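USER:
I wish I could look at a protein chain and see how it folds. I am handing you a single protein, as its sequence and its fold in token form. As I understand it, each token names a local backbone shape. I hope you can help me see how the letters and the tokens relate. The protein I mean follows directly.
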Amino acid sequence: MKISMPEIPGITSEKGLDSSFKKVRASKVEKEQMNITVVKSVIMILVLSLAMFLVVLAIDDVWSFGDYMNNIFCNTIALVFVVVFLDTLVSSSKEGRKKREEARTILRHNRIIQPDIDMYLVRKNMVITPNGKTVRKFQIDSEFSIQDMRDMYGPSELVSDVGISKIKRYAYYQKQLKNDFEKLVEGVDFTHYPEISEAAMKYINATSYGEAALEAVLGYEDSKAGTRSMRVMVVGMMREEPLDGRFMDANPTMKNIYLVHQMINDQEKAVSDYIRLIGALEGENPSEKRDKTDYE
């Protein structure tokens, strides 16, 4: 079941951000300033050379005008080549240093993000696995139906979550991970590794779009419809939902379940991209590697 979400340029919701939003990079500004400085330097040299020629000409006729023009032309061309070479050398060194600094900053953020990814995955996989099936704790990409989520109101299987339902613990950790990714996007310029920012933004947007639906689904756990428990009613509807069911055909209560189902699918894709890209970045920086979780 795939639900298309509306695309709004810029800031897509009260809390969502759009990865297509463009910022003026500091490196671009520096490059423009360097080019302006080179042009000003060449112009200044030409002006000073002309002034010196006029002084020499006034004192004594040492050079002909042709000798002067030939000399100033050769010197200026040589100067331009030297300046361009040094500028390229310095810029390359600066960019290399900035790239290394950006990588280290991302990996420092990742030391906080990675444990939250692990805790998110465990809770997410408990929500999408019905009782009687083995929970694949660190499974990232999964195939699951609305029916597979029918036991999400049951108690979490982890000792640390005792007395709390699976869906509530999932809600908590998926929000923690969203906060982590927001800090990452805000704290790094992503000049050299924009794909990591895009993966984080995918997760942020998916979570923001599904936030209201998840709050409604959490509310079903303790509310009643007349004398009947909403939780019991919702679980019954999920058990009876056909595998080929559609969002458009569902009643308002089940629409929220479909939206949460879609949110989890979109989060999985974003987390999968992020883990793959971070693994490649750690490969470029072996000293920053951490112990790996056995993701599936």
In short: The CA atoms of residues 120 and 209 lie 18 Å apart. Residues 65-127 form the longest helix (63 residues). The longest strand covers residues 224-225. Strands lie at 224-225, 228-229.
